[in-house]
diguanylate cyclase
Amino acid sequence: MSSGTTRRQAGRSGRRRWPALLALLNPVALYRKRPARPDDPPPEALIGKGVRFVNRIYMLRAIGLGIGFFCVAAGFVQNPVDWPLWALLVFHGFIWPHAARHWALRSEIPYRAERRNLIIDAGFGGFWMAAMNGNLVPSAVIISMLSMDNIAAGGVRLFMRGVWASIACFLLGWLVLDYRFMPQSDIATIVACLPMLALYPLALGKSTYDMSKKLAERSREFEVVSQMDGLTRLFNRRYWESLLIEEFERCRRNAGRSGHDACLLLLDLDHFKNINDTHGHLVGDEVLRNFSQLLRSRLREDDLIGRYGGEEFVVILRNTSAADALLLSQRLIDEARERKSGDDSLWGCTVSAGLVPFTPDMDAHYVWLQRADHAMYCAKEKGRDCLVAWDAGLHRAQAKAAADARAA
Ligand SMILES: Nc1nc2c(ncn2[C@@H]2O[C@H](COP(=O)(O)OP(=O)(O)OP(=O)(O)O)[C@@H](O)[C@H]2O)c(=O)[nH]1
């Protein structure tokens, strides 16, 4: 891309950003209900959402307003006020946190109600500034703590809404109370603000840390779930193929070195459709789960087992020689057959399998897979319930079949 194009694009996106920034300075736009976007969840999906958010903010609010009480109280001692303001301060410091939580939890959408409570907090902050006649230290401490809350809870938009709420309530306080600008803070007031300065950021930091830890755990869980097949809890095809590519590259790098062999095993349940048709899909699912369990119990941790499709399973036998892989695969097929007369957990299903050791002549990982597929189909053709290992003869047969297909 030319630098001219880049500059033009940057200019365009910059131009688009300006209205958004200006909207943050416009209280009418900030408080106007945002038009619904196509990817918004339906309103009914929001009902009951945000309980954890409410509880988290409750804890912070109880600590913050409890300590903040002493900041404002010190301001009131320095510049005395009438008892209704003291009563309002006691309410805000010690009753409001519980009332706000109760109110939010009883709302249809607790998350939204809690955001509203945060704006009310910011409004109180502005009002206390006016009530303290602009006493500088407590005003700055309270406003910065409330802003920290709002930006942490709802980003710049909630922060700016809070700023406007603070300004409005400051002006209201100015009009209602006999406001005189007295910014000097005496030493007692400054000392009373210190606990808030020291403790509140700690509480907010701890709460943010706990939340990010939980988020990291969630994203790890999601990652694991996205790699798994839901029914069998084996790797799903997409993830397993990525492992196959890695293994293929590893084998290519180590080609010729002993102890770095790997084999690919493709297993398919025979006449599985009959199980579904005769006993129903639930029994079919049970057979798939039982067979996965058999694979898991007989293979090593190191082997990478995946569900390739409906009743097809794939295994990368890592660091396994062709001779060992042959023995192991044959044992699996025998065990599946023996279950017919044993616990019958496979409902009489037998297994056909194709086995292909890695060889350096393979150009790409899918050649390995194609060969395994071909070997497995040869096992089906041989009458099922058996293992076919890839060898030069099969290679020639496949090459001939491919040439015939091309000629036809
Ligand atoms: N119960 C269940 N059945 C599935 C699932 N996925 C695929 N199937 C079924 O597996 C069956 C596979 O049938 P076919 O491909 O004809 O294979 P087959 O009956 O095993 O025949 P051969 O492979 O030739 O021995 C189909 O009926 C699919 O509907 C699943 O998750 N659960």
In short: The chain has two domains: 47-224, 237-407.
